[in-house]
Design a protein that fits this description.
With about 80 residues, the chain is mostly helical. Helix content is about 60%, strand content about 5%. The relative contact order is 0.15.
C-alpha cells in the first residue's frame, strides 16, 4: 500500500523505507503479490482461533488493498 492509503506503522519502517516497499522492490510485482496473498491466507485461517478477529480482519483488508494497488500498477497480473 502506498502511504496515502494506510497509516505508517513505525515497526514496519526501517530508516526511511517501509518493509513492504522493500519486499516489493526485491520480489518484483508478481512476488510481492504472492507474498501479500499468502499473508491474507495466514490471517484468514487463524482469525477465529486467536481471539483477535477484528484485528485480523483489518489486516486482511489492508493486505487486500495492497494487492489491488499492485494489480492497478501491473494489470497483466490479473490475468495470471
Amino acid at each position: 500500500m502506498t502511504s496515502t492509503t494506510r497509516d505508517n506503522v513505525s515497526h514496519y519502517t526501517v530508516g526511511n523505507v517501509e518493509t513492504i516497499d522493500y519486499i516489493k522492490d526485491k520480489l518484483g510485482a508478481t512476488g510481492a503479490l504472492m507474498y501479500i496473498l499468502g499473508n491474507i491466507l495466514k490471517y484468514a485461517s487463524r482469525a477465529l482461533h486467536k481471539g483477535q478477529l477484528r484485528s485480523d480482519l483489518i489486516k486482511i483488508k489492508n493486505y487486500a488493498i495492497m494487492a489491488v494497488e499492485i494489480i492497478d500498477d501491473h494489470p497483466e497480473l490479473e490475468k495470471k
